Amino acid sequence: MSQVWLITGSSRGLGRALAQAVLAAGHKLVATARDPSQLQDIKQRYADNVLTIPLDVTDEQSAASAVKAAVQTFGRLDVLVNNAGYGDVGSIEDTSLADFRAQIETNLFGTIIVTKAALPLMREQGTGHIIQFSSVGGRIGPAGRAPYAAAKWGVEGFSEVLSREVGPLGIKVTIIEPGGFRTDFAGASTTLREGRPEYEDTVGKMARYQRDYNGKQPGDPAKAAAAIIHLAVVAEPPLRLLLGSDAVRGVEQNDAVRAEEHAVWRDLSVSTDFEPGAGAGKFPWEAGR
Predict the structure, then answer these.
(1) What b/e string do you get for 45-74 counting C-beta neighbours within 10 Å, with b at 16 or more?
(2) Is the backbone of residue 13 left (phi > 0), alpha (psi -120 to 50) or beta?
(3) Is 213 an active-site residue?
(4) Catalytic annotation on 163?
(5) pTM for the full model?
(6) CA-to-CA distance for 6 and 161, rounded, in angstroms?
(7) Can you list the domains of the chain with their CATH numbers?
(8) Is 148 a catalytic site residue?
(9) Is pLDDT of 277 > 60?
(10) Which of 10, 62, 91, 152 is catalytic?
């Protein structure tokens, strides 16, 4: 069955790979970018099945117009993919507050803004799937990527809350957590700053790794796109999906360390309660467990 998709950041990277795969699969697409002229080849190839429009994800009116255009052109919106984003490398000390705000504005607030623009429509439809691009950096805090990780951890929390609120309304939410894919994300889309000598073994190491890693990432964008299209048709998609063997390996190792630390400090954690029996019971999200 044909679906109507809206993808932010469709002009390059995983967004472009997904846009091409969605159209090749026979779906309808609202392909968005700051500069939609970069989507002309897609428009020429798929004609009436694709609408290419400008979208600044940090602008509420622009987001509302994109959702409205989807309805006016295709009659509905089945799948929203919040993909637009970028991430530079630099130390916290040497990253300006303006750079922090810019990354968080695009990577986090952009996701929130476009999601909120689509929610009333999906609520009225009683159906829809919101696919949020986070990152392995939304599960692990890598040196040199503080603004990016702060934004992506925000996307994770926002999207988990969203899933609890809209799940009963028939709207699905999935958080995508890619590792390294052979796109321009680690190249033209990223500014790498090794920083001052004191950060040589942390931020400097990350910048050099990112530079050397570019073009050698294990992830295949076409296979990532196929996986996401599959998610959009399954009855019960996961809340989170890691993409790439490097993402799976990194998160498994990180979670094991976190679990070990939790176990070591568990007694101190629970020692802060009132005496047994004085609590208020389970949290709301624990109901039925």
Answers:
(1) ebeebbbbbebbbeeeebbbbbbebbeeeb
(2) left
(3) no
(4) no
(5) 0.91
(6) 22
(7) 4-271 (3.40.50.720)
(8) yes
(9) yes
(10) 152
Provide the CA 118 distance to its chain's centre, in angstroms.
Answer: 16
Q: What is the 3-state secondary structure (H, E, C) of the chain?
A: CCCEEEECCCCCHHHHHHHHHHHHCCCEEEEEECCHHHHHHHHHHHHHHEEEEECCCCCHHHHHHHHHHHHHHHCCCCEEEECCCCCCEECCCCCCHHHHHHHHHHHHHHHHHHHHHHHHHHHHHCCEEEEEECCHHHCCCCCCEHHHHHHHHHHHHHHHHHHHHHHHHCEEEEEEEECCECCCCCCCCCCECCCCHHHHHHHHHHHHHHHHHCCCCCECHHHHHHHHHHHCCCCCCCCEEEECHHHHHHHHHHHHHHHHHHHHHHHHHHCCCCCCCCCCCCCHHHCCC
pLDDT band (50, 70, 90) for residue 215: low
pLDDT higher than threshold 70 for residue 280: no
Count of positions (residues) in the chain: 289
- The active-site residue out of 62, 134, 159, 163 is 134
Which member of 10, 11, 46, 148 is catalytic? 148
